[in-house]
Design brief:
The chain is mainly alpha-helical. It contains two helices and two strands. The radius of gyration is 21 Å and the shape is rod-shaped.
Length: about 60
């Protein structure tokens, strides 16, 4: 989000054909790569949270 905001505000913005400056292109690449990487990290974090939650739940066999 920060890279996209900086691209629009400080680095000349972008249009349908792309960024206006070389630094703008770099910021655009960084901003677009943060989306899939962030989504992957979020999915892995949710999976770990669900697994940890499932392992901590008491079962009927553990009460015996």
């Amino acid at each position: 989000m920060l890279a996209a905001l900086l691209l629009e505000v400080a680095l000349g913005g972008f249009t349908r054909t792309g960024a206006h400056t070389n630094t703008g292109w770099f910021a655009l690449i960084v901003a677009l790569m943060c989306l899939p990487f962030g989504g992957l990290l979020l999915a892995l974090g949710i999976a770990k949270w669900l697994r940890t939650r499932r392992l901590k739940l008491p079962t009927e066999h553990s009460r015996l």
